[in-house]
């Protein structure tokens, strides 16, 4: 991550803001803070951050609505802070346009790993012809998938699923986002499709499908292709 990148923190909890300001400041980030959603939206426009950290539990407006509003005019990476066991909140935030989430209480190391993935994706071309995740390689031009150099035979649907996961590697994709991308909007409630095809993919690309290294389940939310 480049030094001097600008991070806007939208959170009404002073101790969280202080923790993030000290930890991220120590890594050379320029930090700006907002304590309300309304202030956060206007500071996004003036401060022009490279990444936003938004707490979903804001005092004035719902954090998900802040994400939605910012997404109307900005593609800046957004990481939301959520409370444990609020799967519905996480899903709605991701569907609203957040790139990822971190559950409180969180470690700064975990947050920074998520930030690195989001910033790297924002900087990378959306049209990379070959995507590499550890020993898994997805060649978008030849529609070819290899693991440790060995070609994996996939059905068209399996390929579309691994392709969308690879294009968003490191980022969690919700069941709804995956269904919409692979099967179309009409199927966005049919989560059993996803489970079946993820199971098939794991049998083909994982050394041990019961202990997956590539396609990780985010419980109750969706799936993430690890960016090894």
Automatic annotation (TrEMBL):
InterPro entries the record matches: CheY-like_superfamily (IPR011006), OmpR/PhoB-type_DNA-bd (IPR001867), Sig_transdc_resp-reg_receiver (IPR001789), WalR-like (IPR039420), WH-like_DNA-bd_sf (IPR036388)
Domain OmpR/PhoB-type: 128-227
Record's keyword terms, sorted: DNA-binding, Phosphoprotein, Transcription, Transcription regulation
Ranges of residues in domain Response regulatory: 6-119
Pfam families: Response_reg, Trans_reg_C
Residues with the 4-aspartylphosphate modification: 55
Keyword Ribonucleoprotein: no
SUPFAM superfamilies reported in the protein's UniProt record: CheY-like
Record bears the keyword Transcription regulation: yes
Chain residues forming the annotated DNA-binding region: 128-227
Name the record gives this protein: Transcriptional regulatory protein KdpE
Gene: kdpE_2
């Amino acid at each position: 991550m480049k030094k001097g990148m600008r991070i806007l923190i939208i959170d009404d909890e002073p101790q969280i803001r202080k923790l993030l300001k000290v930890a991220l400041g120590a890594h050379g980030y320029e930090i700006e803070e907002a304590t309300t959603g309304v202030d956060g939206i206007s500071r996004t426009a003036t401060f022009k951050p490279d990444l936003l950290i938004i707490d979903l539990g804001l005092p004035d407006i719902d954090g998900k609505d802040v994400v939605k509003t910012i997404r109307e005019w900005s593609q800046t990476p957004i990481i939301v802070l959520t409370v444990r066991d609020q799967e519905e909140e996480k899903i709605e935030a991701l569907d609203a346009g957040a790139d990822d989430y971190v559950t409180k209480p969180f470690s700064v190391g975990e947050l920074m790993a998520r930030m690195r993935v989001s910033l790297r994706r924002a900087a990378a071309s959306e049209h990379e012809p070959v995507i590499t995740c550890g020993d898994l390689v997805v060649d978008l031009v030849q529609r070819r998938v290899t693991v440790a150099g060995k070609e994996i035979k996939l059905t068209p649907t399996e390929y579309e699923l691994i392709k969308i996961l690879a294009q968003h590697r490191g980022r969690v994709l919700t069941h709804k986002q995956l269904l919409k991308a692979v099967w179309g909007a009409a199927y966005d409630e049919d989560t059993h499709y996803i489970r079946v095809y993820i199971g098939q993919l794991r049998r083909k690309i994982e050394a041990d499908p019961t202990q997956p290294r590539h396609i990780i389940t985010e419980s109750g939310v969706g799936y993430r292709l690890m960016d090894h």
